[in-house]
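hey m, so remember when u said the tokens were messed up on ur end? i reran from scratch. heres the input so u can diff it against urs
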Amino acid sequence: MSSSGGFTGISLAGTWECGACGATGDGWYDAEDGELVLHDEDGQPFAPDEHVCGEG
């Protein structure tokens, strides 16, 4: 399964945006865990590679 989602990354403002579908939410980089922590528009946490365009 290839990840062909449009997730583009995280901004310094503490938000993320999907370049393909325009979804946005809160997000930050957890330096202790070394991974991104993202929340969807409903405030539910999810992994960056779990974002699917058109859902939510």
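this time it looks ok to me. The chain is about 0% helix and 40% strand. if urs says something different then somethings off w ur setup not the seq
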